[in-house]
Amino acid sequence: MLIARRITEAVAERARREFRAILADHDMTADEALAIVAEKRLAALVTGGKVRITAEHAAKLPPSLKIVANTSVGHDHMDSEAVKAAGVVVTNTPDVLTDCTADLAFMLLLNACRRGHEYEAIMRAGWRKGYGFPDHLGLQVSGRTLGIVGMGRIGQAMAQRARGFGMRVLYHNRRRLPAEQEMGAEYVDDLRAMLPRSQVLSLHLPGGEAGTLMTAENFALLPRGAVFVNTARGSLVDEDALIEALRSGHLFAAGLDVFRREPDFDLRFAELPNVFLTPHVASATIETRNAMGFKALDNVAAVLAGRPPIDPV
């Protein structure tokens, strides 16, 4: 097995012990990884986001390869259907990063509403000027209405956190959830009808399904002074439209973990004081990254033992 990305030491130790794995010291490209798989006649490839296996790669995969195990839930960085058509199993790591991602999404929400970036900048600059009663006011989170787009595992976890803050929750999804899963959230079948009611909007749907969901037109439908949060995919957002909405004051603030181009994101976001930014780290806790790596190894172990994959794509 080749692990074609840098991983945590706990995952590396298990991979060496159980699989005699070859461990990359950097995040490999697809060409680098597949060359080693072919040379060593390896049966399994554990991948990261830079292993962008295209249909062209899939057409000439090494015959020894039996499984490509993604260490993530998302697999839109590779042509999964082409890989499967070549007779190779593709897996991912669902379930293990739900709470971690919802935690960070709510952190973004809180910091956007309460001007976290601006307050911290004041302190790091030395805070030698007093501020008066009407200065640097944020938005109270409790009691606000949160609109969630995509009510899967992470969206539901976000709703749970919002309820703890006394927020009203609306959601838009491809289909309505059973009542026991809604837990008081209100289903809105038309996104355009939900946007004007959403004082805070948070995206929790996979990229690729909706294209550019948040256009200038849809941002304009949000109430003036709304807050926007995105831990889903940068591809869902027209960033020019988002920047204009933030500059004009139509949006009070935004909390962003994902961008159209990563890591070379649009630096105009960094110039805006009303944006709280994180570098695509929603799953970046010790517990979650270990769990993601272990889940990829579990899938490899199952397939190489002749069993069905645990988490097939």
Automatic annotation (TrEMBL):
The keyword NAD applies. The keyword Transit peptide does not apply. InterPro entries: D-isomer_2-hydroxyacid_DH (IPR050223), D-isomer_2_OHA_DH_cat_dom (IPR006139), D-isomer_DH_CS (IPR029753), D-isomer_DH_CS1 (IPR029752), D-isomer_DH_NAD-bd (IPR006140), NAD(P)-bd_dom_sf (IPR036291). GO terms for molecular function: glyoxylate reductase (NADPH) activity; hydroxypyruvate reductase [NAD(P)H] activity; NAD binding. Residues 9-313 form the D-isomer specific 2-hydroxyacid dehydrogenase catalytic domain. Belongs to the D-isomer specific 2-hydroxyacid dehydrogenase family. This is D-glycerate dehydrogenase. It comes from Muricoccus nepalensis.
